Amino acid sequence: MNASGWDERARDLGLLFLRVSGGLFLLWVHGLPKLLHYSTEVQNIEDPFHLGANLTLILAIFAEVLCPLLIVAGVLVRLACLPILFLLLVALVVVHPQWSLFEGQFGWLLLIVFTSILIAGPGRLALNDRFAGVLRYA
C-alpha cells in the first residue's frame, strides 16, 4: 500500500473514531439521562427562549439523543451536527455566560469536536457513503 492509501485510511479511521466517540459521549453523558429521567429533567431544565420546559427538553433530547445516533451511524452527519452546535452555544453563551473556561471546558470541547465533524464530514466509513445522491453531501 502506498503512502497516500495509508493516509486516506488513517483519515477515515480518525473521522470514524471522532464521530463514534464524540457521539456516544454526548449521548451517554447528556442525552440518555435526559431521556431516562424526563420527569426530573423537565423540572430542572433552563428555558432561555421561553418555549416551555417540555418543548425545551424535547429539543434538547433531539439534539443529544437522535443527532448523536445519526452521527455515530454516519447518516446526515453534517446536518445532525447543527442542532448539537446550537444547543452547545446556547448553553455556553446564553444559559451559563458566567462560566469560566475551566467551568465550561466540557462544553467547549464538545463544540470543538462537533465543529470538526461538521467541517470534515463523516469520512468514507459512514452509511452516507453507502447511499447515492441526497445523503452523500449531508
Automatic annotation (TrEMBL):
PANTHER family: INNER MEMBRANE PROTEIN YPHA-RELATED (PTHR33452:SF1), OXIDOREDUCTASE CATD-RELATED (PTHR33452)
Lineage, uppermost ranks: Bacteria, Pseudomonadati, Pseudomonadota, Gammaproteobacteria, Pseudomonadales
Entry keyword Transmembrane helix: yes
Membrane topology: Multi-pass membrane protein
Name assigned to this protein: LysR family transcriptional regulator
UniProt source species: Pseudomonas frederiksbergensis
Pfam families: DoxX
Subcellular location: Cell membrane
Keyword Protease listed: no
Segments passing through the bilayer: 12-31, 51-72, 79-99, 105-127
Assigned GO CC terms: plasma membrane
UniProtKB keywords: Cell membrane, Membrane, Transmembrane, Transmembrane helix
Family: Belongs to the DoxX family.
